[in-house]
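hey so u asked for the seq, here:
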Amino acid sequence: PEAHLSYATLSSLLLDPGDARSALDGFDEYLSHGRAALSEEALVGRALALQKLDDRAAEAAAWRDILRRFPRSIHAKLARSRLLSLGSP
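ran it, structure tokens below
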């Protein structure tokens, strides 16, 4: 379990200095194992990595997924704002 958790932790650390591709890969690996303790944070990190990679369609899908899975999230306002910026409902 600790090794699995390290994917989310390391990915967050990689995202800050700008290694968005590696961060995205790590978030995807973490999320591939189903429901996990940091799922919400990993989904947000994934969306932010996609934003840095300028993959607008995938980013919009990621933000919609966050709103669908965590509608009362503290990240919901950011998700809605990004979706508006992307011109996505």
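The first helix runs from residue 2 to 15. The two ends are 36 Å apart (CA to CA).
lmk if thats what u needed
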